[in-house]
Amino acid sequence: MIDKWFRKNKVDRSSIDDRVNELKKRGVPAHVAIIMDGNGRWAKRRALPRVAGHREGMNTIKRTTKIASALGVEAITLYAFSTENWKRPRKEVEFLMKLPKELLHTYLPELIEQNVRVEMIGHREGLPAHTLESIDYAIEQTKQNDGLILNFAMNYGGRAELLEATKAVAKKVAAGDYSVDAIDESLFERELMTTHLPDPDLLIRTSGEVRLSNFLLWQLAYAEFIFTDVLWPDFTEAHFLDAVEEFQRRDRRFGSVEGKAHI
Predict the structure, then answer these.
(1) Could you count the other beta carbons within 10 Å of the beta carbon of residue 223?
(2) Residue 44 burial (CB count, 10 A)
(3) DSSP element (H, E) containing 247
(4) Which of 9, 18, 59, 85 is catalytic?
(5) 34, 49, 181, 236: which one has the fewest Cβ atoms less than 10 Å from its Cβ?
(6) Residues of the chain with confidence (pLDDT) below 70
(7) Which CATH number do you get for residue 219?
(8) Inter-CA distances, 48 with 44, 45, 53, 56, 87, Å
(9) 151 in helix, strand or coil?
(10) For the purposes of burial, counting CB atoms within 10 Å of the CB of 49, is it exposed (0-12), middle (13-18) or buried (19 or more)?
(11) Phi, psi of 150 (to 5 degrees)
(12) Using CA atoms, how far apart are residues 227 and 243, in angstroms rounded to an integer?
C-alpha cells in the first residue's frame, strides 16, 4: 500500500526507499509520539475555514502511518484531541469529533492490509457515542494485527492521567495489596494508560510551537524532542525520515555520562 501512495502522489519512491533501508540499518525509534499542530494556521493561510486544515491533516496521518510502518516503528501515539481542546469553538469541536469516523471509515481497509493495530488512550467519558463507536470498531477489526500500533490520544491530558494513576496506587495501598515502600516506577507505570507500550523514544511537534501541551508527561521523560516549523498538513514522509535521522544523531545518555544505544 505504501507503494501505491508514492505512485499516486508522485513521490520519488526510489529515494524514499533508499532512505528507509539506510535508516533501518542504524536502528529506529520503537515508539514515536506526535503533537499534530498547525491545522488551523494551514487553513488560515489559504483563506479556508479551520476545519479544512483538520481534514487535510488526516492525509498526513495516513502517509505518516505508512512510512513509519515501512521503517519498522512499533508504535505511534498521535495527540488527536486534548482535554483542553474542549475550549475551542463548538462547531470546530463537533467537526473534530466526526473526524475519527471519516478517517477510519476510508482508511480502515488499508490499515488492515498493512497489519496496523488501532488503539486509543484518553478519557472515554465525554466523547460522543459516534466517535467512540468508530474508534471501537477500528480497534475490534484490527485487534489481531501485530504490526505498527496506531494509538490515538483522544480526550487525553497528562496531568489527569498522573492523578488517576496516583489514586489507583493509593487505593491498592489502602486495600493492603502492597505497602507504600513497595511503590516504585515499575509499579506506578502499571496504572498508566500506556502501560502496554514502551515509553516514546522520539517526540515530534509540528508548526513551530515548543512545548508539551500536557502530553505524555511521565512517558516523555527521556524522549528526544524534535520541533519543526512545518505545519501538520504539510508534514511529509521525507520530514518524518528527517526526524528519525536526527534522532539517530542524538547521544542518548539517560542521565549517565556515556551514551547508550538509540533503541
Answers:
(1) 20
(2) 13
(3) helix 237-249
(4) 85
(5) 181
(6) 1-14, 254, 256-263
(7) 3.40.1180.10
(8) 6, 8, 8, 11, 21
(9) strand
(10) middle
(11) -100, 100
(12) 9
Residue 262 lies in a domain: no
Indicate the SS3 state at residue 89: coil
Output Rg (C-alpha) for the chain, integer angstroms.
19
H/E element holding 229?
none
User: What is the 8-class DSSP label of residue 19?
Assistant: H
Domain that holds residue 73: 19-248
**CA dist., res. 212 & res. 231, Å (int):** 16
Record the pTM: 0.90
Give the pLDDT of residue 11.
53
User: Residue 167 contacts by C-beta under 8 Å, 6 or more apart in sequence?
Assistant: none
Give the CA diameter of the chain: 61
Active site residue 146: no
- Please confirm, yes or no, whether 9 is among the known catalytic residues: no
Give me the number of domains the chain comprises: 1
Residue 128 inside a domain? The answer is yes
Q: Which residues pair with 76 in a beta bridge?
A: 32, 150
pLDDT of residue 9: 44
- Answer whether 227's CB lies under 8 Å from 211's CB: no
Asked if residue 202 lies in contact with residue 27, where contact means CB atoms within 8 angstroms, the answer is no
Catalytic residue among 3, 12, 17, 37: 37
Domain assignment present for 261: no
Nearest-angstrom CA–CA distance, 232 and 31: 19
CA atoms of 76 and 33, how far apart (whole Å): 6
CA distance 222 to 122: 22
